[in-house]
Design brief:
alpha/beta, TIM Barrel, eight-stranded parallel barrel, three-stranded mixed sheet, 18 helices, metal ion binding
């Protein structure tokens, strides 16, 4: 028996026990409402989605073609429409998640207005967006089930038992739109206690997976900007511990932590690590610091900092800001140490922020990590900050040149030009781009592929196209041909925007509450009927 049928039976028994006082309550309506509101709290969602994510991670370990994907969404409606689209086109949401980008919260959700990705936005906006996304995903469940229940009523009135059986099966086996969210906590918005408190709010809002980075929280930069500053491992591990404690306190034992390292592009550190003996973690971190060997006290000026490095006294390079510089060319070694250390101290997944999408580069680092931690897996940012067209065309160019092919007809520095779109090089580069996620998951241990801020760009592009036509010669045709006609023909549910916003659900509730006296919005004069 399905949960719906169980609820129907239980409510009927409860009504019967009230000796007529609840005769106005229809058990079928109650069961219907419960089915349309499966998740009662954010913690219900966090526990449900954590289990899904753990199962997906185990499946990937067996078969790397079973990687997962997500798109960053800056509003609940955008996340909702993404999941509705996935169900429409693919029939199921399996291995498709949502990503919550700190960059997009800063740029689009801060009360200060648009901000750079430097953790200056309100920290409460992070759990706020998680809650909003899940509110809209739960509403998508209610909206879809509402249509199924209405169709079931119509089938009953028509006496179509076969249709009734089909619809009841869809209701009993309904797949929710609620999927895991990988949520960006930046560098924790403060010390470990601040990280713990914010993580709790995020988990209570529904987050089953929290991504945290090893930058200094008060100097945090976007991973694709200059000036990134990392912290010693001890500081970062304290924040990983803080997130794990938050998960465990709230009963989300399967909660997932993604440890992100920005060391590949970070040339600075906030402070020198504490070390007690040669070769310990602090000593390894300090071994990457740049400096000049000294031989006497005369080599030390006022304010200089001296450490023992590989058995020698070294005056480390320190800037006016008080930050210390790493040696050039140590980025990959620091990444590998960061990742191994994080996995050995409670993290579940890794995030390596790179400067370009290159399978070989990522594989080289992951192979070194897996030599120590064999099941290491990555979350990877398929970032809009990369010029994907230029990067892959240059990768093809370099591969051909290495093979000895004649590439004289191509200008490597100008490969972004549209003149190369239909060339053999351009077509092969597009194929490499198409296969990047498959190749990287197979070769470089990437479990989850995400695009951080795609819907920021799609909103801008679609708005530009509409504004160009509407305020130009096309006038209303720009909307009709470019938006509405396509919505109708491509089966986009938002063409009936009143329904998508909940008007039919509200009408049904009015009927539940008022009976025949209900004043409903969906009658013959509702213009939504023009769309069939």
């Amino acid at each position: 028996m399905s949960a719906y049928q169980d609820d129907l039976k239980a409510i009927a028994q409860l009504r019967e026990a009230k000796s007529g006082k609840w005769d106005n309550i229809n058990p079928e309506y109650v069961a219907r409402m419960k089915a349309q509101n499966r998740f009662k709290t954010g913690l219900d969602i966090a526990r449900y989605t954590a289990k899904i994510m753990r199962e997906d991670m185990a499946a990937y370990d067996v078969d790397s073609s079973r990687y997962t994907q997500s798109l960053g969404c800056w509003h609940g409606f955008i996340g909702q429409q993404k999941l509705i689209s996935i169900k429409k086109h693919f029939g199921a949401t399996k291995r498709r998640y949502l990503y919550l980008s700190g960059w997009m919260i800063a740029a689009l959700r801060s009360e200060f207005g648009p901000l750079p990705d430097q953790s200056m936005h309100e920290k409460t906006s992070v759990p706020g967006l998680i809650e909003e996304l899940y509110t809209f995903l739960r509403q998508a469940d209610a909206w879809e089930l509402n249509h199924l229940f209405r169709d079931l009523e119509a089938a009953k009135e028509a006496g179509d038992s076969a249709k009734m059986s089909e619809l009841q099966d869809k209701i009993d086996n309904h797949e929710t739109h609620v999927v895991p969210i990988i949520a960006d906590i930046d560098a924790g918005f403060g010390n470990a206690e601040a990280t713990y408190l914010l993580a709790k709010r995020m988990i209570e809002a529904g987050a089953c997976c929290i991504q945290i980075e090893n930058q200094v929280s008060d100097e945090k930069q976007c991973g694709h900007q200059d000036g990134k500053v990392t912290v010693p491992h001890e500081d970062f591990l304290a924040k990983i511990n803080a997130v794990r404690y938050a998960f465990l306190e709230l009963g989300v034992e399967d909660g997932v932590i993604v440890a992100r390292t920005d060391s590949l592009g970070a040339g600075l550190t906030q402070k020198i690590a504490v070390t007690k003996e040669p070769g310990d973690l602090g000593d390894q971190y300090n071994s990457f610091l740049d400096g000049d060997e000294i031989t006497s006290a005369a080599d030390i000026d006022n304010g200089d900092v001296v450490i023992k490095q590989n058995g020698k006294l070294v005056k480390v390079k320190r800037f006016a800001s008080g930050l210390y510089q790493f040696k050039q060319g140590t980025g990959e070694d620091r990444v590998v140490l960061d990742c191994i250390t994080s996995l050995q101290n409670g993290a579940d997944l890794l995030w390596i922020e790179t400067e370009k999408p290159h399978v070989g580069q990522i594989k080289g680092m992951v192979d070194r990590i897996r030599a120590v931690v064999p099941d290491a897996k990555l979350v990877y940012n398929n970032s809009p900050s990369f010029n994907w067209t230029l990067n892959f065309r240059q990768q093809v160019f370099d591969a051909w040149e290495k093979e000895g092919k004649d590439v004289s007809v191509y200008d490597r520095a100008n490969l972004m030009s549209a003149e190369y779109d239909d060339t053999d090089l351009g077509k092969l580069a597009d194929e490499w781009t198409r296969n990047f996620q498959r190749d990287a998951s197979r070769e470089a241990g990437i479990f989850h592929h995400l695009i951080t801020l795609p819907t920021y760009h799609t909103a801008a592009l679609s708005t530009d196209n509409l504004a160009k036509g509407y305020f130009g010669d096309d006038g209303m045709l720009a909307y009709v041909a470019g938006v509405q006609r396509r919505e109708i023909r491509e089966g986009i549910a938002t063409v009936k925007h009143q329904d998508m916003a909940g008007s039919n659900i509200g009408d049904d509730h009015k009927e539940f509450f008022h009976g025949e006296a209900a004043l409903k919005a969906g009658g013959k004069d509702n213009t939504m009927n023009q769309f069939g």
